[in-house]
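idk why but the lab printer keeps eating my pages so im just putting this in chat instead. protein + zinc ion:
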Amino acid sequence: MSEFVPSLSPSASVSTHRYIHVIGSSVFVSDRIEIDDTPQHFLGMFGDEACWAVDVPHGEDPSYGSAIDLFSYFGRATEVEWAIAGRAVQLAEWGRTHKFCGRCGTATELAGNDRSMKCPSCGLLAYPRLAPAMITLVTRGDQALLARGVAFRAPMYSCLAGFVEPGESLEQSVIREVREEVGVEIDTPTYVSSQPWPFPHSLMLGFRANWLSGDIVCDPTEIMDAQWYRRDELPNIPPRISIARKLIDMWVAEG
Ligand SMILES: [Zn+2]
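predcted complex ->
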């Protein structure tokens, strides 16, 4: 099974190409470029296969309707293929949103020597955006705290999550988010694993933490409901695509 290795240009051992056409935020994968004269971003090597993002201009659709969003692509592709497609969407979106310098407004150019856009006037560099977000499963004895966010589209209970603020550590971020969202105090969280989350450019950092004190008091602007659940009475939980589900499954397997 090949690994995907991100890089700036194809290696000498290229045998085939994988072109991930990014149409809006959906993807269409082909072994050839289906549209001319449009920006491309090299993604990296997947074994001997060179992977590219092809940024399809707004309003065009070389897939004739067969492009699928990343949520739907999960499950149809392997996990590594899904990650490559997520990288394609993120880099295409980065290219679209960094055409001009954020400081002086001059049109930017690809720097070439690294993954950045450079302003030829003032020299400002813009790298692909990556927003660290933490997610944590809080446990108390044989129960875990699961919450239904106000933004969830489906009636589903998940781990608590939030973006890391400038100036705080991941651990501080976890403690703050848990306190803000459900009013509960926890001990120092333990890092478990991470997952790229290209919706649109997050990096999810998964933690576990033990409850210390406090009853659940939801912040109604973020959390519709939160409860303590035993393993044998779990509510509707997130699908396998998410690290939230992995954190919950790991905990369930310990029981
Ligand atoms: Zn500039």
